[in-house]
Fold this sequence. Notes:
The protein is of the alpha+beta class. It folds into two domains: 25-67 and 103-269 and 307-420, Outer membrane efflux proteins (OEP) (Up-down Bundle), CATH 1.20.1600; 75-102 and 272-306, no CATH class. It is 67% helix and 9% strand. It has a four-stranded antiparallel beta sheet, with no helix packed on it. Helix 4 (107-173) packs antiparallel against helix 5 (179-213). It is rod-shaped and about 145 Å long. The two termini are 49 Å apart. The relative contact order is 0.13.
Amino acid sequence: MSSFFRTAAAAACIFISRGAIAQETRDCAAQIDRENLIPCALAASLAVRAEQASLSATEARRTAAGVILPSNPVLALSGSRRSLENGAQTTLNWSAELSQELEIAGQRGARTRAAEAELAAQNRRVLLSKRDTAAAAWTAYFEAIAAQREQELANNLLQASQRMSAVARGKAEQGLIASVDADVVEAATLRVLQAKLSASRKWAVATATLSALLGRDAARPVTTVNGELAPLAGTDSSSAPNTDRPEMQLLADEQKVLNARAQTLRRARVPNPTLSVFAQNDGFDERVYGLGVALPIPLPSPIGRTNAGEIAELEALGRRVQVERARRERALGLEVATAAAELRAHRDTVAALTSPMLARAERSLVDLSDAIDTGRLSVRDALITQQALLELLQTNLSERLELCLASVRLARALGRPLEEGAR
């Protein structure tokens, strides 16, 4: 009965897990927003899967390092037949020996410490791969949002420009303005159309990139990306970097790995004794029992193997990792300073572009055709106004995108947990 319940429980767990996976897949396929972006990107990341597979391999290596005996016991058996010269007496001689190699210099502990250091380093690599994946996902997400907003802006501008072109052409046909002015308005409309096509291209590239990060076919990209061009929360130009950043911890763990491996090789220079017990039937039924010990004879380098070269190599690599750690600290400091400066600059620019100002600019673009129709603006003045307002709206969009991207770079440089999802 208990076996039946265990089987039923296992089946239920499998059913629930498959349902959860299917639900997550549907959520990722339906639409992308701040809530499901990072979970979907991490679930589809091949880089994260590769590092997790390496983590499983490292765990297996730690299990192998914890084996108590350095080798399996050896049982040796032999037999022979003994007889006198005239064959008057014969007997069967045999011998049996059981031997076991032992480690007496703490080699097992050294191997275990090295394996645990490798495991800690691999855990850092898994975390770093998740953060790199999350940073790439946030970047692609903001670029897709910006491309979507640029498409909407280009569509509105094209409609306004086409209305202005129609008004100018009608006034030219009535002889109220020169025909060349209507031609200039049509040329400006063509430039707006080119901007719309460029926005469509950016949207296609951004959604294809985002789809690839989400494990989808880039030829069938996501079609719905929800959200606003708002920077990541918790990032500020005055934020202090985390002292336990995974990049620095990984280098510290790698140095520990090299030192532990060198210590393992030092312990391996101590010869392992082999203890044995034996019994034999010798001569004419003479029983012999005994104990034995065998010791390897270490010879100095370069005649014998003392691991001196391997130990020197690992120590040199450890010093290199220490220098690399100092170099990485400098590089991260520069990344933080650069990203913070960029964040301040873009945030000040976005703050200067107030919502009332942008709303007035959008209304003015729509009203340009009426201004031409009523004669309040000449065609040339309307074109100059259109170009200025268009640059203002495009600047607002590009600055908001750069602000979001700067927040991603700053969060990554500061060591913020980007892999934890919505921010």
